Amino acid sequence: MPVSDPFHLAIQVHDIEEARRFYGEFLGCPEGRSSEQWVDFNLYGHQFVCHLNPAMKDARESSHKNPVDGHGVPVPHFGIVLEMDAWQTLADKLRAHGIEFEIEPYVRFQGEPGEQATMFFYDPSGNALEFKAFKDRDGQLFRKA
Q1: What's the pLDDT tens digit per position in 91-110?
Q2: Which of 93, 85, 4, 12 is closest to 45 using CA atoms?
Q3: What is the distance between the alpha carbons of residues 111 and 18, in angstroms, rounded to a whole number?
Q4: CATH topology of domain 59-140
Q5: What is the pLDDT of residue 62?
């Protein structure tokens, strides 16, 4: 899915090959340029870079959780806002592969502005990811009321 203004995000990982397996093979993000210290991925049209930090601790240990809709949302986190069908396909794939969820796939803010399907899980280095979807993504993404 091409975007008009793609973002660039760089994160730390403790193992480049493990990041390649998780983001490249498992999540299906095409690989771009790379070296022994970093690798670029196309994350739904965005430039996503994993930088090696072999000394990093599991990012889960340093994350904070904010209460949202009765769940502790890990901060920091990142992810993509998908179309609903793509979100469901990813949720099914993650469940089938036994991914441990921080927040199981569900619909939050039901019946309210901003109703959305969401799920949180971690990559092998402990970076928190959120993938979400709206029935009307363009109309709901930034809706206040």
Answers
A1: 999 999 999 999 999 999 98
A2: 4
A3: 40
A4: 2,3-Dihydroxybiphenyl 1,2-Dioxygenase; domain 1 (3.10.180)
A5: 84
